Structure formats: C-alpha cells, structure tokens
Amino acid sequence: xGALFEAFRRGYTIEDVRDVSGGxxxxxxxxxxxxxxxxxxxxxxxxxxxxxxxxxxxxxxxWKGAGFTDLHIADALAGFPASGFKSLPEGxxxxxVMATRHxxxxxxxxxxxxxxxxxxxxVTPYYYATYEGGSAPIxxxxxxxxxxxxxxxIVVVGSGPIRIGQGIEFDYGCVHAVGAIRExxxxxxxxxxxxxxxxxxxxxxxxxxxxxxTLEHSAEVLxxxxxxxxxxxxxxxxxxxxxxxxxxxxxHLESLGLNLAMQGTTPDAVDEASDRERFEAFAERVxxxxxxxxxxxxxxxxxxxxxxxxxxxxxxxxxxLGGRGMEILSNDRQLEAYxxxxxxxxxxxxxxxxxxxxxxxxxxxxxxxxxxxxxxxxMEHLEEAGIHSxxxxxxxxxxxxxxxxxxxxxxxxxxxxxxxxxxxxFNIQYAIRGETLYVLEVNPRGSRTFPFVxxxxxxxxxxxxxxxxxxxxxxxxxxxxxxxxAVCVKAPVFPFIKLRGLDPAPGPEMKSTGEVMGSHKxxxxxxxxxxxxxxxxxxxxxxxxxxxxxxxxxxxIPLAQELEEMGFxxxxxxxxxxxxxxxxxxNVQTCYRIAEGLTPDALDLMRQGKIxxxxxxxxxxxxxxxxxxMMRRLAVELxxxxxxxxxxxxxxxxxxxxxKEGMPEPRLLKIAVLS
Length: 675
Description:
Strand order of the largest sheet: 1-2-5-4-3-6-7
Largest sheet: 7 strands, mixed
Strand content: 15-25%
CATH class of the largest domain: Alpha Beta
Structural class: alpha/beta
C-alpha cells in the first residue's frame, strides 16, 4: 500500500498504477489517488504557513474523515522533514493537532462490527472508530448510559497483529489481566486490533475495540469509556511503548473529563528500565554488573564505540521487537556492511555492547508489588548468549548453573524489582561467563515466556501480576509453591520451509514463529518430548554428518564416539574427520566440502538419504559460510534435523539415546487457580 501511495504522490495516473501493479481494481486505486491528493493539499497548506492551531474545522473534519491520523497531519504540515516526525517542535507536533481537533469538538464515532454479516442483528460488543467521512457529529461519543454505570472500567491494551517477536504469548497475559479485573468486580475493556486471538473472543471482555494501538486511538477509547484505569504491561513492547506518551497526554485528557490511573509500574520506572543510559546509572547505583556498552547516533560514533569496546560486539537498534536488526560483528568489514543498511538518528540510536562469548544466558520472569518480589522461574538457555531468547531452547530449572550464581540471580532480581518500583510483572535477561553474572536487559512488562512458566511451575504468574497491578499485595494472595518433581523444556518452532533463502542458523535476531514444551523427571527425556513436538524427527539409526569450526573440533569428539557406539555412521569434512580419527579413534567416512565441487559432499549424501542428523557450528568467514547456508537450507527441505551449537549437539545426542530406550511416558500438567 505504501508503494501505491507513493506512486500517486509522484504523479502516476490510475491506469499507470494499474498496469504496473498487475491490474488492481480501479475502485481501490481511485481512493488511493484521492488520499494522495488530500495529503498534497495538507502539505501545501503547511507551505503557506498553516500551523496545527490554525486548522479550520471544515479541513480538520475532511482530513480526519479521509483517514489521516493526527501524526500524519502534523508531519505533512511540516513538509515531512528528513529528521522525522519526532523532531517536530512543540506546537507543530501530533499533540498540537490533537489539541486543535479536541478544541473543535471533533472525535470519532464508534460503530459496532457487524459480526453476523447482516443476516440478523449483531449484539456482540465489538467496536471500531470512524470519522464517517468527515460527517461525524461534534463531541465525544460516550458509551450509552455511561454515567449510570456503577463498576469501574479498566482498559487492557493488547499486543496487536501477530508477527515474529510478538505473538499469542502476550495475548495470554491480556486474557489473565481481564480475568483479574473481573474477579475484582470491575468492567474489563480491551483495545486490540487482531481478531485472531483469545483476547478478542466475544465473551472475554465487556467491550472490545478493534483500533490501532497508537496514542491517538487509545486516547479516544479512554475518553469514550471514561476509563478509570489502564494496564499496559501485558501487551508486549507495543503496549508498554504507550506508557510515556500517554503520561504526557494525561493533563490534556483530564481537561476533557478523564480521570485515569495508569495501573502498575509508573511510566518513569518503565523509562528507567528501557532507556540505556538511565538503566546503566541505575545498575551502578544498586551494584549490578553489565557488559561494556554505549549508544551512538552517528556512523562515526558507532565505529568509535566498536573500537573502544573491542570485537566482537553485539549491535542493535533501540526499541525494537524480536531483536530486529541485531547482529554480532567480528571486524571492521562486517561493521561497515552493517552500517550501509542501518538507520541512525538522534532519537533512534544504535546500542553497541561487548559480546559475551561462551556465556550461559538466563531468563527470569518475576512479579513485584513494590515491596516484595515473587520469582516465577529462572530459565537456562541451551544456546549460548547471543542467540535471541525467543529462538533458544530453555530449561526450568537451570541444569548447568551453580547454587552460588543462582542465589546471586535471585538477589539481583529482588533488588531490581524493588529499587525500580515495579508493580506487576517484569523480565530480566542475565548472562553468566565463568562464575561472573551480568545483567543484559530488564523488560518492565510481561514476557513471551509467561505461559511456559505457568505450565512448567503450576503458578499462575500472569494472573498474580494482574492482581498486583490493580493494587493487591503478594502477602494477601494465596498461590501454590512451584512444582519441583520435573524438568520442563521449551523449544522453538521455525518457519524455514516457508521462508526461502533464509539461513536457518539461529542468531541475535528472532526467527521462530512458535514454541512447544516437554516435561519429564529426566532433562534428556523432557528435551526429547519437546523435540518431537517440533515435528522434526529424532533419529535412532543412520548417518550423522559433522562439520564444526576449529574451536569445537576436540569438543565434538565425545559426541561422535557416543553416536558411533549407538550404531550411527559418522561422516565429516576433511578437517573435522582428521581430528575425530586421530584424536578420538572414531571410524569416520570423509567427504568433500561443498565449495570444492567434488563428490560426495554433504548435499550428495543428504539427497541419497544417508544423513539423518547434522552437527554444524557455523563460521563467519571463508567458503564455510556458503557451505553451511546451502547445507542447512537443504536440511530444512528434506526434514533432516540439524544443530548449530555445541550445547545443542550435546542435548541432541542425549535425546537420541533416550529415544533408543523408548518414548518417555506422558505427564499431566497442573496450573493452580488463584483464589
């Protein structure tokens, strides 16, 4: 749609666009053309000196009726400055347009979604906002009879459209938040523009608004509902990003009759946890250790940061979902390649951190009432730090962390929750190198692992968090002790067969689109259950292809020996085969690297059905990069399991041993109900 809009901006005719777009129906193209013309009108008005406070009522109604947001109107009046809309000065920004619109009494109407397709009258309380082509009546469209309602109205902001990095895991938290609100006798209102979720089922909330999760649309729902409170920490990063903007807009909304409490963690505490410089100051103040790092908003600043910290570095944009744009860089060449595609601005700096190689990563989900902390679970990632948490296999309880470090994790988690003043849920990511603990980041919101923690421990952590955001205390809640008889494993599910050309090797940017779980008294059996649930086979016979980087060649020897003892045929490239044969006594069949162009190579063996498991730790340089990419892509297409880390290889071999002994028995999961 953006391309269509841009075409009309550049003067294309409807027939031009229809020809190059493959024949889009003219009815739709006429409307795009009309909107582009209106945008040109807004921009021309700005060039003539019009400011947001001077927008006439007829133009405001017409522009809003065409679907332009307050932000787009402000940006167009300013001529779409190259520095971005966030650089607009006070009086020319989104706030100024909203203030003028409200002064003119222009608010959207809320209409019910016809969920019955006109077959009979729809009564489901699903609503959407519309300015009705500019003909909507003046004034706030309050819920009918709102002044006669006796219950408080609490709004929960969802996570919006499902995408990589933000999925139905956050919807789980929203549903529990609604349940807690209703348990306390209040009305629960949801804003979430995604019909494919449980939170948008007809009987989940009292009223549901299918509107974009932006400040403008959320503010209009709050005004319509005369809401008493709003919960932002259950909708992921999309929802929590509204905390500061909404707090800044509250005085204006109060002048229109809104008396709203922002429930739970304060916006200032959210900012302190999210803003890099503020959190570094907080960590130093309370005695926490962080990896060396800094922020940079210019290319030279990024280069200087990388030089000071030293390679390898972990570099990422700020305020992103799913680790988008995050990479581990090992040299200047890789940095320059990254910088060619990076977007830098003063309000969107890049974060440059020391990369903690060979470190164990932990995730901690916890809740706090402001004075007491309940730790839901400490999760150990199977993969080393640097793999995105959403793509990692993780274990509850941790399997390879000392009691001393676990005690320090619990201590730091309590410090962070209480000192930040968290009220509700929060998530912390730690890294352990040797016996040294580092804080990587703190998320003052529910995390994607909340459902897993509840199923693994039996403790309804999301429901507890919601009750705390609404003012209750941990000491007053009756919740069970977590189960300790079984190990629980969460494993990611990847869509690689659908995404042609994407390298399946995991990294700091999230790629998974789902997750599964296994539970058993033995860690290897729990991992086996989770692996089987991903629908990738766990082989019990056949061939294993091994090619690892130099640093892993001796570490892979015990795994190759165990696989050989279980009856597998071992295949390896020349360098790996030499070490396995000479240092490990493994009977290994040597094959060629793919780049050598000789046969048999890995691709030949895979197509011949001789390979049933691949152990490949990728290298970042040389021909091995392309070899690894081609091999992993073919493995996806042939449904051959592959592992790309040594930790993953060790667990995979243990799972194979478990599978040869027979499939582990099912185990019943129990989650307590909060009374």
